[in-house]
Amino acid sequence: MGDFQSATAVTRRAGTQDFDVVLDQGWGLEDIPNGGYLLAVLGRAATELAGQAHPHVTAISGSFLQRGAPGPAVVTAEVLRAGRAATQVRARLSQDGLPRVEALVTLGRLSDEDPFWSASKPPALPPLAECPRSPVMDQRGGLRIHILEQVEQYLDPAGLGFLTGNPSGRAELAGWMRLADGSDWDPLSLVLAVDCLPPVTYDLGVYGWTPTVQLSAYLRALPAPGPIRLRAAAAELGNGHVDVTVAAWDSKDRLVAQGTQIASVRLPG
Amino acid sequence: MGDFQSATAVTRRAGTQDFDVVLDQGWGLEDIPNGGYLLAVLGRAATELAGQAHPHVTAISGSFLQRGAPGPAVVTAEVLRAGRAATQVRARLSQDGLPRVEALVTLGRLSDEDPFWSASKPPALPPLAECPRSPVMDQRGGLRIHILEQVEQYLDPAGLGFLTGNPSGRAELAGWMRLADGSDWDPLSLVLAVDCLPPVTYDLGVYGWTPTVQLSAYLRALPAPGPIRLRAAAAELGNGHVDVTVAAWDSKDRLVAQGTQIASVRLPG
After folding, report:
1. For residues B243 and B260, is the Cβ–Cβ distance under 8 A?
2. Do β-strands B151-155 and B212-219 pair in parallel, antiparallel, or remain unpaired?
3. Do A262 and B238 touch (CB under 8 A)?
4. Which positions 171-230 of B are in contact with A (Cβ < 8 Å)?
5. Which end of chain A lies in a sparser environment, N or C, as judged by fewer CB atoms within 10 Å?
6. Which tens digits make up the pLDDT trace of A19-75?
């Protein structure tokens, strides 16, 4: 119970491109599975289709249609192209015959080698031990964020003014993250990681829920063991939507994942 | 000939969710249609399915499978969810029975109202008249970039050091863009715009082709008439891939579109 591998395990139906999965209540907010968790499940099914030549998800984009629910679900998938450098897959998660998430997945082979060029730098954070662990009971809305039992999150106190009614107005958050099951990060769990931070809109004093409409993640390198550091930021809240960009670095300061999403926002009043 | 509306016109097959389209050689590089152009075609088909309640593409993600070619193509589409606030569609562009691009499209209703909050600022550029128009014959590779006949591009000379062998090493480009047919930008042509700039890898002294693997665009507001300004930047080139982030602002300094893509890069040597 509570480990990422079990929570994302898929069982292929013999002779098909369909998979059975049981969505775990532990990886969501109240009874709503986290969107990154659902994408990771789709990524795992795609990984099984791609096989050993392309063992890693390198890019994934999902469209969120209907909330999922804990319990049985079905993934239907289709290999769109099996090339030399990459396998490209389309995958759909359904429950009760209704599509919940539709995803496009690219699979290839990642390494941990140094990049040819990078302008990417991890945020300057206090040590993990000096950042408070985010509690499972949401301090703003009284909701039970089960996923924070499985994903330990230690946010930079400098960005937590919203907890005391003093949001910075910058729409930025940063912090440390590690899996409570003790496992190291991998490309699939990083897909989850880029959708686990609190809404950056909290830092604007906007405390409503911000359901993801579309989310894309790029996996850039195999992460070194140890906790990751993440930074999230938004560029604009307008027309009822906010964009959120997230980057994650491993313990060797290597950029390992990037996420971007557009989410809908209900403004007060 | 040469106008965006005609080049993206789709004809629905009665009683189906399929569309015929003729891809126009004018919107690509040599005989390869531009990826943003293909996504715009898929967006137009999705717009026809969504109808008047949700007339604008607000988000689109595409997975690029095989190069397209000028000539007839078929779009097959499927409404995944028709909700109150949005319609979500899956669409595929095929030629000769082979899928070329698969896309997830969200449609809603955009406005030109001011955002609730924005940290987004257009780049400081010289006036359009002081930026050289990008020539149709590529100055690096001798290729014919037909699309630059239809999309007038005026890049900031400060970012064009790569033309004379002096790339800045920052992987940044910025400039003006307008449609040669005289039409104003709209959400669909903005999907094209975010994939029209030269590869930012030129600014790293890496001059190979960088085919898009996956691309997402978010449309944030209805653009005011007049040219747009764009800025493109990369965070990292590693593991054979580069990420490229693009933003576009209208003549009133309003953020109107954001694009992000992961592209493969073949390094010299």
Report:
1. yes
2. unpaired
3. no
4. 171, 204, 206, 213-214, 216, 218, 220-221
5. C
6. 999 999 999 999 999 999 999 999 999 999 999 999 999 999 999 999 999 999 999
